[in-house]
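ingest -> validate -> predict -> emit
validate: passed (alphabet ok, no gaps, 207 aa)
predict: started
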Amino acid sequence: MVGTDMVGAGENFAVNKDNMEQLKEQLQKSIREVPKFDKLQNHIDMTVTNEGLRIELTESAVGTFFDSGSARMSADGSDLLKMLAQELGKLPNHIAMEGHTDSKKYPAGATYGNWELSGDRANAARRIMQANGIREDQVTQVRGFADQRLRKPDAPQDPSNRRISLIVQYLEKKPGPDSGAGEKAEGESVAGAAEKAGKEAGEKKKE
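emit:
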């Protein structure tokens, strides 16, 4: 568990670029406890990126987390998100949520399409996670991308293009309390050296 296996939990533990891989490993251990993990494991992908830890839940042809065209989360998907919420809610890091679809089009003239579906699925995930451990102020973005960021561009209707993504964003290290004092001391030493050099130059002129 994130709160037990990692040194320091909650507000005392911040995931940054130095230890994001450690968070990934701990979450991979935790999700093995989710009911029906054997069914879900091939549809859970965790990758450390420039933005943070990206957790992607990808669909199968028969629908693993959502039925095709629906924003209603399956019981298996809900169990997984609840576990992730309990673990990620212990961290101070912000989280962004994304929804993605494949390129299958809705009928012409439909008032609901992939843009709406991708946003609705991301929000469905947000609601479940905020009800089960994620803090209200922890989610900073909910994005719906429709089919604009395909996981498999060469197979635009592949089921794995339908997915939701959770991004645990890096928390930048704050400068230590002594960093400002160090900069000040360095500035003072430079100023002192300049003043000393000026005095020496003046004495030479007098000679």
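Residues 58 and 160 are 5 Å apart (CA to CA).
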